[in-house]
Design brief:
The structure is a homodimer of 351-residue chains. By secondary structure, chain A is of the alpha/beta class. Chain A has 3 domains: 44 residues, Orthogonal Bundle (434 Repressor (Amino-terminal Domain)); 136 residues, Response regulator (Rossmann fold, 3-Layer(aba) Sandwich), CATH 3.40.50.2300; 138 residues, Response regulator (Rossmann fold). Chain A is 42% helix and 13% strand. The first copy, chain A, contains 12 helices and 12 strands. A 6-stranded parallel sheet of chain A has the order 2-1-3-4-5-11, with helices on both faces. Chain A has a 4-stranded parallel sheet with strand order 7-6-8-9, with helices on both faces. In chain A, strand 6, helix 9 and strand 7 form a beta-alpha-beta unit. Chain A is elongated and about 90 Å long. At the A-B interface, helix 4, helix 5, strand 2, helix 6 and helix 11 of A face helix 4, helix 5, strand 2, helix 6 and helix 11 of B. Strand 2 of chain A pairs antiparallel with strand 2 of chain B, so a sheet runs across the interface. Chain A binds a DNA duplex (30 and 30 nucleotides) through helix 2 and helix 4.
Chain lengths: 351, 351
Amino acid sequence: MSKSVTLKEVAAKAGVSYQTVSKVVNNKASVSPETEKRIWGVIAELNYTPNYNGRSLRRQRSNTIGYTWEPSPADQANPILDAFLQSMFRAAEEEGYYLLCFPFHADDVRMLKVYHQLYNTGRVDGFILSRLNYGEASVPFLLENKIPFVAFGRLEDQDQSFPYIDVDGGQGVAQAMDHLVSLGHRSIAALAWPEDSRVGNNRLEGYFRGLAKAGLMSDPNLIVRGEGTSAVGFEATTYLLGLPADIRPTAIVCMNDMMAIGAMQAVRTAGLQPGRDIGVTGFDDTPTARYLTPPLTSISQPIPAIGENLMRRFIEYLETGSYPEPRCELVAPNLEIRESTAGYVPAKGRS
Amino acid sequence: MSKSVTLKEVAAKAGVSYQTVSKVVNNKASVSPETEKRIWGVIAELNYTPNYNGRSLRRQRSNTIGYTWEPSPADQANPILDAFLQSMFRAAEEEGYYLLCFPFHADDVRMLKVYHQLYNTGRVDGFILSRLNYGEASVPFLLENKIPFVAFGRLEDQDQSFPYIDVDGGQGVAQAMDHLVSLGHRSIAALAWPEDSRVGNNRLEGYFRGLAKAGLMSDPNLIVRGEGTSAVGFEATTYLLGLPADIRPTAIVCMNDMMAIGAMQAVRTAGLQPGRDIGVTGFDDTPTARYLTPPLTSISQPIPAIGENLMRRFIEYLETGSYPEPRCELVAPNLEIRESTAGYVPAKGRS
DNA sequence: TCTCTCTAAGCGAACGTTCGCCTTAAGCAT
DNA sequence: ATGCTTAAGGCGAACGTTCGCTTAGAGAGA
């Protein structure tokens, strides 16, 4: 921190009391135009910037929002981190807010302690949560302690107990299903996440919706669950390709891009060509998706818009005390069609 | 911000003056063991946490470090962001510091204004910079205004005017070269970045070192420059593969993974197999590198160690006023050998 | 002329700390 | 007894703001 210019110095130079300078800085009227102009002049001349700690102490708000997230394992990238962070602090800056990043702890007790600490020490005015999952400890904790927060993601479909913006993952997968069906696929498998993943279940739901819409039966053999890694994608796909010809899928819908990468590798390993022989779709539209061989059809989320919106609405809540409607919002993802689902020719006799 | 417990409340309950409580909290001795124990008891009971704004105001330091970075274009991921951020704020937390993230502005004037503002308002005690490039405006600005900072990256090879940790990219590429030479490659091309990129030039230098060490001549035809995108990698490689047989390269060293992805695609498009026919190496060891077809040999940087170190040393500087030796550090990256450089069989008659 | 209203600006206090100095009492050697 | 040292803790002030109340003076209306 620097020894910087204070209100008093500005006041002395402008020949007014320092409180008057404060009024000018905060646009609190009742200052004559000439005085105001003179004060602004001195402010510019001395390059005065209001001290944020003094201000926060007095105002009892820090204009800072806290955010943490679970680190990705070394072999996996967080596909949305950069865009999400950028969109948030860009929106925040415009309102005079900043983003404080702090460590994630897998241990709930420790994590809650950190939330509590950051809020009670006055470092942050509230939090932005992301990647909520069933039984998320932070949500009830924050609600109970009246610590303001908004979330990117939700817990239960009908829950409105806190403001959030979430992506309708099911809708995205349903788009992928429609696309595959329109290409002629009739036997479509799903690589899903473990059942305890809220996001995974939300996405998978679109698979069922897609089947239903096309009038296809769902076959338990065609749904394989596992962690969202390419290793799981590889194994699951190897299994699927080994199924008897009458139920063997011609397309595989994956709940994220990593699984899709593994799936495409397995397809190739089996001597088939992804896209032409077996359609594969991912989810997340990871930047590398378009550079895979073949480029991967995937589902992209409007991350920058979500981050910006979330931040703006949260700040409005912090300043006015009421969260703008709609409190909870579901946004549609977008299907990016690439070659991993192109060129499929239905085998005759099928369908 | 919350209405939380203050020193005075603790003091009242413990029957001492609030200044004494402050002493206990800050371990400033001259308090009897019994009193101290009693005070700690009350602190625990009331769940007291010292107000950070009051403390910062008085101490004239915010225990907050600022960081910003250039956002990645939508079709490219920042391969190190997550790990770098996590390592930094994890180290920071242990020392009672936090990381403030703020927007990057391409416009120098605006960017410098933000640095100035954040520092002069007392929001941050200093900055961490990354991805320095020639003519970086921030460095002279911060030096001149005596605003503390450290950098991940350097400007000139001999410059010691500010503390930094940098990766010796040249050393990494040299490792790749050694590896390729040991496999029998004698004609090796380089996909380099534009000449105005400091990081790019640093990496490319390892290419020349590698050639020299193997006693190979450098051929200007085999060095192609362009932005570090897969499109450039594709085009450059297509050009290289079209060269006359006597100078056509058998291996391509790329200055980042994106170029390598494009290169491998071009190799395949030419009817050749990356790894077997043409060796390809990348740089960054992007998480997806190992999931490409074939898995990409790449150079990984010890990002978590760098982030942690940088933060710890910076905080030590902020607290003691002197930066620990060595002020400037160069760390070695690590070559991750995968199939994109495996299985090469030198054509007879060559070499 | 008197009062009433309104505007411009001043003033004291408070936000929650930490810092440095002061006071008190006890301990101890002379 | 006296004086010196030390430990334990109190006290006033300050960090830089903002808030709300007060005041001086100008102008208007009766």
